[in-house]
């Protein structure tokens, strides 16, 4: 007998309280807020953000744009801020997606409107994450391989769950919000490496805010929209084998603690991070390695990850984010992969372009069906004299949930990103407030008075 998935997930979401969440889950959620808001500040002036803001020309409201004095209504603020958060592809990853890029802008915008507390926001984040994780684990196929971008298709439902919890909707209204979020799901991987990709996160955040607001106002939706044979999970399923019968365990099993967040060290697709770590290890071990004298670069990785990295000959910073060829050329040549390198001029440098043809892939057949990753990635550099330099096998990228960055490293990333938008003192103050989010009665921008 099939579980009443939509209704059960709604009941679990509406019943979630801050006090029930493990301390480890709260700390992970705070990390999501810190990282997302930092990269949002770094990405606020990207062309895709400016185009969206100018096109929407949002009416004034009570939700902040880019943590500054300009305000918009919460749905539009969530939309624009989420595009900024994902614009640089520097935001965290989990669940084969970018949960914080969707959840944080949606929650912050609606929390400002509702004047919600920091604890309310953290509870909403965990509610959204747990709903996302519950739905994702019901499928054995790879959404990316099918062409779906999980950030877009699951993000709208998860953001609806988060905003429903923030609004303290009952189980019936929360079910409507989840179903309304499902009807707004969208995002295809063919748009990776273009301005459309961050739009997926923006639309999902906007959809979540809107879904919860419509449900709160009395709009109805099907109460089996997630599990119905023509419902969301069946419609997007890559394998056509969705487990809708497994009981909902939100509030009992804490997947945010089990899975955690991967904090990015590099502003590129996460599929490049293990190979980048491997190349930087070789660069450090062989500081005199001359890129011009490299005969070949061999990258061992999964076929699925290689498929995601679709741009073999990028000519823009956006395209380069989804290019293993660029990742290897950049790490080898610059000894780093940062925001300054993800620039059109750097990507088009002849020495960078000249290395692309020397990169070739070897596919590891031991692909994990749940993650799409091989057990490890490895990089080899072939020299003209016949020698080959091999990196260590890299099973976890630096910053992964299993190899986390220190609090100081996370702060350093935040301050570096925030420096693009805020004075140092303001950035430090914001980091301090986010680090103690559970103690804040209100989270306002600019800081509000008690």
TrEMBL record:
<protein>
    <submittedName>
        <fullName>MmgE/PrpD family protein</fullName>
    </submittedName>
</protein>
<feature type="domain" description="MmgE/PrpD N-terminal">
    <location>
        <begin position="7"/>
        <end position="239"/>
    </location>
</feature>
<dbReference type="InterPro" id="IPR036148">
    <property type="entry name" value="MmgE/PrpD_sf"/>
</dbReference>
<dbReference type="InterPro" id="IPR042188">
    <property type="entry name" value="MmgE/PrpD_sf_2"/>
</dbReference>
<dbReference type="InterPro" id="IPR045336">
    <property type="entry name" value="MmgE_PrpD_N"/>
</dbReference>
<dbReference type="GO" id="GO:0016829">
    <property type="term" value="F:lyase activity"/>
</dbReference>
<dbReference type="InterPro" id="IPR005656">
    <property type="entry name" value="MmgE_PrpD"/>
</dbReference>
<dbReference type="Pfam" id="PF03972">
    <property type="entry name" value="MmgE_PrpD_N"/>
</dbReference>
<feature type="domain" description="MmgE/PrpD C-terminal">
    <location>
        <begin position="266"/>
        <end position="432"/>
    </location>
</feature>
<comment type="similarity">
    <text>Belongs to the PrpD family.</text>
</comment>
<dbReference type="InterPro" id="IPR042183">
    <property type="entry name" value="MmgE/PrpD_sf_1"/>
</dbReference>
<dbReference type="InterPro" id="IPR045337">
    <property type="entry name" value="MmgE_PrpD_C"/>
</dbReference>
<dbReference type="Pfam" id="PF19305">
    <property type="entry name" value="MmgE_PrpD_C"/>
</dbReference>
């Amino acid at each position: 007998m099939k579980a009443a998935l939509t209704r059960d997930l709604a009941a679990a979401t509406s019943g979630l309280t801050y006090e029930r969440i493990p301390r480890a889950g709260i700390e992970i959620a705070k990390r999501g807020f810190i990282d997302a808001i930092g990269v949002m500040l770094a990405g606020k002036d990207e062309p895709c953000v400016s185009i969206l803001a100018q096109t929407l020309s949002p009416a004034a409201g009570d939700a902040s744009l880019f943590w500054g004095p300009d305000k918009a209504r919460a749905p539009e603020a969530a939309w624009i801020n989420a595009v900024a958060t994902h614009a640089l592809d520097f935001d965290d990853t989990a669940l084969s997606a970018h949960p914080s890029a969707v959840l944080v802008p949606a929650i912050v915008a609606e929390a400002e409107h509702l004047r919600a507390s920091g604890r309310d926001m953290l509870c909403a984040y965990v509610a959204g994450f747990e709903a996302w994780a519950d739905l994702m684990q019901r499928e054995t196929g790879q959404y990316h391989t099918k062409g779906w971008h999980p950030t877009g298709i699951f993000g709208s439902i998860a953001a609806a769950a988060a905003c429903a919890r923030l609004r303290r909707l009952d189980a019936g209204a929360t079910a409507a919000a989840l179903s309304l979020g499902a009807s707004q799901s969208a995002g295809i991987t063919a748009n990776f490496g273009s301005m459309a990709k961050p739009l997926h996160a923006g639309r999902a955040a906007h959809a979540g805010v809107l879904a919860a607001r419509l449900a709160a106002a009395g709009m109805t939706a099907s109460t089996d929209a997630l599990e119905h044979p023509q419902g969301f999970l069946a419609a997007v399923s890559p394998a056509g084998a969705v487990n809708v019968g497994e009981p909902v365990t939100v509030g009992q099993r804490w997947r945010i603690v089990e899975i955690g967040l991967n904090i990015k060290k590099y502003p590129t697709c996460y599929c490049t991070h293990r190979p980048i770590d491997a190349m930087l290890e070789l660069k450090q071990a062989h500081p005199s390695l001359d890129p011009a004298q490299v005969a070949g670069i061999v990258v061992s990785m999964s076929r699925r990850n290689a498929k995601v990295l679709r741009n073999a000959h990028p000519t823009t910073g956006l395209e380069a984010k989804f290019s293993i060829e660029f990742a290897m050329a950049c790490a080898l040549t610059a000894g780093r992969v940062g925001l300054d390198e993800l620039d059109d001029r750097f990507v088009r440098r002849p020495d960078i372009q000249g290395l692309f043809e020397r990169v070739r892939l070897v596919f590891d057949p031991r692909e994990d069906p749940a993650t799409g990753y091989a057990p490890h990635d490895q990089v080899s550099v072939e020299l003209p004299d016949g020698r080959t330099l091999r990196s260590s096998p890299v099973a976890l990228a630096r910053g992964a949930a299993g190899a986390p960055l220190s609090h100081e490293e996370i702060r350093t990333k935040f301050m570096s990103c925030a420096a693009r938008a805020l004075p140092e003192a303001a950035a430090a103050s914001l980091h301090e407030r986010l680090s103690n989010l559970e103690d804040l009665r209100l989270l306002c921008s600019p800081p509000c008075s008690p």
